[in-house]
């Protein structure tokens, strides 16, 4: 089973979770403690169905596929060539960009919690 932990598919309200269940979507409950208070959220289970993936999942998948194509092209180039250096720099930039996505959802989710 795959859970869509993309911030655009996280549900923070109990009422919204009930509505989604009524629409025959599978969800997964997430519970954790913050300052001795139990926080509940729900994630929509997308089962790797593309149309149900969240924005983060789709963007990351697209970027990963682009980087994969670039790495494949690198195998066909001479490592000493200018083209290799340019393409290698681009694929490293895409990799770095992909890696920046992993910290951002945590920041967004912490900001969403009613701590104030």
UniProtKB/TrEMBL annotation:
Any Pfam family the entry gives: DNA_pol_B
Q: What is its EC number?
A: 2.7.7.7
Keywords for this entry? DNA-directed DNA polymerase, Nucleotidyltransferase, Transferase
Source organism, top-level taxon: Eukaryota
Q: Which GO terms describe its molecular function?
A: DNA binding; DNA-directed DNA polymerase activity; nucleotide binding
Q: Where is the DNA-directed DNA polymerase family B multifunctional domain?
A: 1-103
Gene3D superfamilies on file:
Helix hairpin bin
InterPro entries per UniProt: DNA-dir_DNA_pol_B_multi_dom, DNA/RNA_pol_sf
Q: Please report the name of this protein according to its UniProt entry.
A: DNA-directed DNA polymerase
């Amino acid at each position: 089973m795959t859970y869509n932990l993309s911030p655009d598919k996280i549900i923070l309200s109990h009422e919204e979770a009930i509505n989604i269940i009524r629409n025959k979507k599978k969800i997964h409950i997430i519970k954790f403690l913050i300052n001795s208070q139990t926080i509940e959220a729900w994630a929509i289970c997308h089962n790797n169905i593309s149309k149900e993936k969240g924005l983060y999942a789709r963007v990351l998948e697209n970027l990963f596929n682009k980087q994969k194509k670039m790495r494949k092209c690198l195998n066909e180039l001479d490592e000493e060539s200018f083209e290799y250096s340019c393409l290698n720099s681009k694929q490293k930039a895409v990799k770095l960009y992909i890696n920046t996505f992993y910290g951002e959802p945590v920041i967004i989710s912490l900001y969403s919690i009613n701590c104030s």
